[in-house]
Amino acid sequence: MSEQVIEEVDDLEQPTADGEMVHWMAPRPLSVGPAGVSVTAGAAFTLGVATAVAALALLHWLGPERVIEVRRRVRA
Fold first, then answer.
1. How far apart are CA 43 and CA 58, in angstroms?
2. Which of 13, 32, 40, 45 is the most exposed place for a label (fewest CB within 10 A)?
3. How far apart are CA 57 and CA 48, in angstroms?
4. Separation of alpha carbons 70 and 76, rounded Å
5. Mean pLDDT of the residues in the chain
6. CA angle 32, 33, 34 (to 5 degrees)
């Protein structure tokens, strides 16, 4: 708590509730160090690569079936 000089007795009454959370009820700010940022970026990149590979595999699997034609040599 901060130390304040109270000049009048009227300043001692309780403040009215304005809908704001009390300071000790507020969530702590997120503190992530450089290692946490690196891990998060690596995980996001890995998830993106896995999603892209899965999408390409699904498109290949659902795509039209291709038939390979082999040319026969004609002997003259």
1. 22
2. 13
3. 14
4. 19
5. 79
6. 130
